[in-house]
Design brief:
Shape: globular
Number of domains: 2
Radius of gyration: 22 Å
Number of strands: 14
Strand order of the largest sheet: 2-1-3-4-5-6
CATH architecture of the largest domain: 3-Layer(aba) Sandwich
Order of helices and strands: EHEHEHEHEHEHEHEEHEHEEHHHEE
Number of helices: 12
Strand content: 15-25%
CATH class of the largest domain: Alpha Beta
CATH topology of the largest domain: Rossmann fold
Distance between the termini: 12 Å
Length: about 350
């Protein structure tokens, strides 16, 4: 079964464990996962040995400032399809976060026509401009267990110099313009609650200037995995003030730490409404974010956190990996244990069914 192999684009990212978790669990199911390359030589060399090319953020694979680069990548996608590769695209966002170029639109149009599509919610289908009927909904897996999570609330707050009894809001992730952090800081600065605190934590990418407020804590640097627990366990709620969003890894991270979220009713976030783990607001309402922050001061954060923990229990990466097998066109596999007669040792054997 040489073709039961997947080339991942990418296999892992230093800033997001999504791909690492997905492909590690696929490998546990007996799927061989390789680091993907899109060069024509690589495509010819590996045809017949690799059956699937799985893309996540296509804009990572060409120069977005040059249409010729995007055109070259689109041509290589078509060459891959002609060589017999199956293309799969997980649509994490409707468009690149800092806006779509002509090259982005070209590449995404080719993928919509030639690839099998994976989305994380039904709203993802609507973002695919007619191609959504061919999309498979597979939920985003949880991050429970991926990060250390042993620090207490009291210790976490002491580490960040936060009052023990304050209502603490956290905005976590790369500090980028599209995330609406400037608007968040202004709305927070207008809150009358002097005991409230807002922590904005993450590596700056692009220019963002939060409002000045003594209740605001800035942790503007890369946050190592071991320190993620400090920020989430110090927080009562996590605020995600996106102006546009489809899927949010930061939302899944918050839920995985048992934290309710405050977020716009957009994309996959809108589907959290029945869970009781999210306080959602109308992103188009002029006072939507401000009103949501006011509610966040009095909402039962502990109950929202319990609802978050219940929600992520059903988001097993093992189940998610198995659902990808059908998208890849692979038969499900059974791993059979048997005794080797010569050595008496137990051996594993993968059976495709």
């Amino acid at each position: 079964m040489a073709r039961q192999r997947v080339a991942a684009f990418p296999r892992r990212l230093p800033t997001n464990p999504y791909c690492e978790l997905l492909y590690d669990h696929l490998e546990k199911l007996g799927i061989d996962v390789a680091d993907g390359r899109s060069g024509v030589r690589w495509l010819f060399r590996h045809r017949g040995a690799i059956g699937v090319l799985h893309f996540h953020w296509p804009e990572r694979h060409f120069d977005r400032t040059r249409l010729a680069s995007a055109l070259g990548f689109a041509v290589r996608l078509l060459v891959a399809r002609a060589l017999g590769y199956r293309l799969v695209w997980t649509v994490h966002n409707a468009a690149p976060h800092e806006g779509a170029t002509r090259g982005d639109r070209l590449v995404r149009a080719v993928l919509r026509r030639c690839a099998r599509l994976v989305v994380h919610c039904t709203a993802g289908r609507a973002a695919l401009e007619g191609a959504g009927a061919r999309a498979t909904v597979i939920p985003h897996g949880s991050y429970v267990g991926r990060y250390p999570n042993a620090i207490t609330r009291e210790t976490a707050r002491a580490r960040l110099d936060l009052p023990r009894d304050a209502r603490v809001l956290l905005a976590f992730g790369q500090v980028r313009p599209y995330k609406g952090l400037e608007a968040l800081s202004r709305a927070f600065a207008a809150l009358p609650d002097r005991d409230a605190r807002l922590v904005i934590a993450g590596e700056p990418v692009g220019r963002v200037e939060p409002a000045a407020d003594p209740r605001l804590r800035l942790v503007l640097r890369h946050v190592p995995d071991a320190e993620v627990q400090v920020l989430f366990n110090a927080a009562d709620l996590v605020v995600l003030p996106y102006r546009a969003v489809l899927t949010s890894g930061a939302a899944m991270l918050a839920l995985s730490f048992g934290r309710g979220i405050v977020a716009p009713r957009l994309g996959c976030l809108a589907e959290l409404d029945p869970s009781g783990a999210a306080l959602l607001y109308d992103a188009d309402a002029p006072d939507g974010l401000a009103a949501a922050l006011a509610r966040a001061m009095t909402v039962d954060a502990a109950a929202m956190g319990n609802n978050a923990r219940r929600l992520v229990r059903g988001l097993s990466w093992d189940v998610i990996a198995r659902r990808h097998l059908a998208v890849y066109g692979f038969a499900p596999a059974l791993t059979v244990l048997h005794a080797d007669r010569a050595t008496g040792r137990e051996r594993r054997h993968t059976v495709w069914i």
